[in-house]
Design brief:
There is one protein chain. The protein has 174 residues and is mainly beta. It contains one helix and 13 strands. It has a four-stranded parallel β-sheet, with helices on one face. It has a three-stranded parallel β-sheet with strand order 7-10-13. Strands 1-4 form a two-stranded antiparallel ribbon. The longest helix is centred in the middle third of the chain and has 11 residues. The termini are far apart. The model has no long low-confidence stretch (mean pLDDT 89).
């Protein structure tokens, strides 16, 4: 849409699109309602009750939809609580991930964050499902301090804090 900017609302119809020289036909060509134009993610996004994202789950879902165009940090702020998270928090492969377009999850400066919960069934708190170039940095000041705690209170099967999984035998996680 000529002249459209990030955050603008559009309403339209898409009957075909080309991805990597291959023509695709969407299953839904005329979705109802207005849609917001979003660009790929870059920079720091805060996570907490009054922040950019209220949950890490929402931030992870957004990076899967939008992809990245540079390094991204999810900063767990002082008002972060894992109470409303949907476990496991799944971080999947996302568009643009590379050795320089990384994802870093860490507590904000001076914050000691806790991710705690009881996932249903046999699940971890965070699942890296084929996602590459993801760092979970537990320091809140860039040193070797340990300011991020994972507590999986589940009692069935896998009770890991973080699970790293590949998408297939030929597509591992790095």
């Amino acid at each position: 849409v000529p002249g459209a900017n990030q955050g603008n609302l559009i309403d339209g119809e898409c009957t075909s699109l080309t991805v990597n020289s291959t023509s695709q036909t969407p299953t839904i060509t005329a979705p109802s309602g207005e849609k917001s134009i979003q660009s790929a993610m870059i920079g720091t996004y805060t996570v907490g009750a009054s922040q950019t994202y209220t949950t890490l789950t929402a931030a992870a879902n957004d990076i899967s939809l939008r992809g990245v165009s540079g390094a991204v940090t999810f900063s767990l702020e002082s008002d972060y609580s894992s109470t409303n998270e949907t476990f496991p928090i799944s971080i999947t492969q996302y568009t643009g991930q590379s050795v320089v377009n990384t994802l870093n999850i860490k507590p904000a400066t001076g914050v000691s964050a806790v991710i705690s919960g009881s996932p249903s069934g046999s699940a971890s708190l965070i699942q890296l499902l084929g996602a590459d170039y993801v760092t979970i940095d537990g320091s809140n000041n860039g040193t070797t301090t340990r300011n991020l705690t994972f507590t999986n209170t589940g009692t069935v099967g896998l009770t890991a804090g973080v699970q790293i999984s590949s998408l297939s035998s030929s597509n591992g996680a790095t």
